[in-house]
């Protein structure tokens, strides 16, 4: 279309046609929000028609053109600075200048913010679903291994015996918080900036609530300047993902270590071999899960650095912020799914674990607790058991300096230590048979039945809680998905009433 002065009336190409064209364009990366943009366009056009800002027949033509653009796909879009410009051009190419009415009462600024939120909310729900899968895997392991005794570590050294169930539920609980953080972020992502236009609102009588409703957003971002400028929802999402990735990295590291020690056997599906050493079975997938913490914190750091110091209201820097969030959510969701599979298919070696559970005199704390329960101040009990450990170590190695790292103390060693430290026989305080029992890793676990402890009955209530938390989060996820689907159906129904 040519204007009175002979110029091209569609002036978007006046700028950005030069050598920086591809640097300026986000069209390729915007494939991620192609579907979101079509939804946002449709909701906006329906609202414009309902408000009488465009005619019903004009809306019908635009909506028909959008259907054609959808069928042709992102790959067929004309060149443009971004998907928003390219779709508008495609619509105008299809139906002529009336297509330009689509951009009435809006800007790419509120449009892009709406598209990112629209897409990210689905990605966050996928991330949530992945955490639920992993929680289910961990709860499954816990259910099977309530009585499988294993060594527990501090400083990577054998510390106290625990169970595989207790270990698995420790990660299940951490992941519950990761799920909660993602759902919490979702609540602030799922708000509509549409109607903010460039940042300063519009002279048209738009209905912001209506576009929000048609797009399944829970509410409107009120202040138009905030709506266009804010990307804290990206930083918050990446933050939640980075914390989740940190949880995953610890879980992966534990499993790498346990596999190395023969405590757990990873399924071949989650292992890899060496190109030169034919005997090798390596826990590569878990190493990659562990590494995803790098992707996630890179995403968060990329976002915070890009967003820092940006003035109000819109700056093109924002275009480069978005991909950080996509990379983080993709990496972390995939890592979570892989971790879920690795956990669900691993086999725990009960015999190896039982043999290792008592290593390093890991029952020492239980013996000290026993003495303390029979009246000795805990500090004195600690001293008796420390001396017993030392004497036992001397017996094995002959070196006074060596500590009981490998060898535990037996009842005789505790008796000797009691005589040495207390000047009284052990039996004055406690039946040596009880000491014998406290030295047994399985009995030691059973005796730690405080809330949250590893004793089977304490673990049973943790398992119950894991089950109900999982059910609650599954229904929270289903509710959110259902409300997005209902909105998509409503929008589709509105669109078909025009075309
Ligand atoms: N593609 C841009 C982005 O991702 C949106 C375009 C807004 N452009 C502008 N010059 N105001 O942020």
From TrEMBL:
SUPFAM superfamilies: L-aspartase-like (SSF48557). Residues 51-294 form the Fumarate lyase N-terminal domain. Keywords: Amino-acid biosynthesis, Arginine biosynthesis, Cytoplasm, Lyase. Residues 361-446 form the Argininosuccinate lyase C-terminal domain. Pathway: Amino-acid biosynthesis; L-arginine biosynthesis; L-arginine from L-ornithine and carbamoyl phosphate: step 3/3. GO terms for biological process: L-arginine biosynthetic process via ornithine. It catalyses: 2-(N(omega)-L-arginino)succinate = fumarate + L-arginine. Gene3D superfamilies: Fumarase/aspartase (C-terminal domain), Fumarase/aspartase (Central domain), Fumarase/aspartase (N-terminal domain). GO terms for molecular function: argininosuccinate lyase activity. Its main location: cytoplasm. It is an enzyme of class 4 (lyase). It comes from the Archaea. Signal peptide: none annotated. GO terms for cellular component: cytoplasm. It is found in: Cytoplasm. Belongs to the lyase 1 family. Argininosuccinate lyase subfamily. This is Argininosuccinate lyase. It comes from Halomarina halobia.
